[in-house]
From TrEMBL:
Coiled coil: none annotated. InterPro entries: Metallo-B-lactamas, RibonucZ/Hydroxyglut_hydro. Pfam families: Lactamase_B_2. Signal peptide: none annotated. One of its GO terms (molecular function) is 3'-tRNA processing endoribonuclease activity. Gene3D superfamilies: Ribonuclease Z/Hydroxyacylglutathione hydrolase-like. This is MBL fold metallo-hydrolase.
Length: 262
């Protein structure tokens, strides 16, 4: 079984039905959590998966992509029998930032959660050179690419057996995201804006829906999943992405969506 499950897909606007960024990748017994924004731990616990993850990958350290990694650490640690540490990958330039967060959320009087992130997870740098391959499980590998964003950000390319799933992260149009997405079976890509002036796109490192579709078509992906929506013009954004991506099939991300891969 190889599949992608959308746990959350919005950009910074979590609510009861649309938590922020978070995805599950499953392949032959290996389960990887990609991003852990606000609301994702609730999605995991509702599925009984909080202790059944083999690795976590954070594309970058903006709150809508990573804030629930702290509750996930506490959830894993504050149980009668805590599960083993699992790898947690972040862009190589962000390891020190995550360590500072670990200091900030620490409970120094309780050894179990004195440094919750480094106790629950084996924090590892994700090299974004488009060449270094990380093995996450049997038949599951990860390659990081340098995305274009306001903070260090990684476009991701997962090999799942003979299938490929790619994630844009938050990014502008750049060689890194194109490399990650090239010929992917499934490409999850942000569409933050319906319209935006070039300076805004360059300064913040995001895509319009039209650019998202064009990127998927240029990369030759088999299916585009449009994500990171702001919640204001979702229908228009999806329509713009679908028109620009044609003939690539396009699906709108929604919490609970399951996409078979292959």
């Amino acid at each position: 079984m190889t599949r992608l499950t959308v746990l959350g897909f919005r950009a910074g606007r979590p609510d009861a039905v649309s938590p922020c960024s978070g995805y599950l990748l499953e392949h032959d017994g290996t389960t990887v959590l990609v991003d852990c924004g606000p609301g994702i731990v609730g999605q995991l616990t509702a599925r009984g998966l909080e202790h059944r993850i083999d690795a976590v990958v954070l594309t970058h350290l903006h709150q809508d992509h990573m804030f629930d990694v702290v509750p996930l650490a506490f959830t894993r640690l504050l149980t009668p029998t805590p599960p083993p540490r699992i790898p947690l990958y972040v862009p190589e330039d962000s390891v020190a930032t995550l360590a500072r967060l670990d200091d900030w959320v620490a409970v120094p009087t309780d050894p179990a959660v004195g440094r919750p992130l480094s106790t629950a997870f084996d924090v590892r740098p994700l090299v974004r050179d488009g060449a270094t391959v990380v093995r996450l499980g049997d038949g599951v590998t990860l390659t990081g690419f340098r995305a274009k964003h306001a903070v260090p950000s990684a476009s991701l390319r997962f090999a799942l057996g003979d299938r490929t799933v790619a994630f844009s992260s938050d990014t502008g149009w750049c060689d890194g995201v194109l490399g990650a997405a090239r010929d992917a079976d499934v490409f999850v890509c942000e569409a933050t804006y319906l319209t935006a002036d070039p300076a805004m796109l360059a300064d913040h490192g995001h895509l319009t829906a039209e650019l998202t579709g064009s990127l998927a078509r240029t990369a030759g992906v088999d299916r585009l999943v449009v994500s990171h929506l702001l919640g204001y013009d979702d229908e228009k954004s999806f329509a713009a992405a679908a028109e620009s991506a044609a003939p690539v099939p396009v699906t709108a991300a929604s919490a609970g969506l399951v996409v078979p891969v292959g």
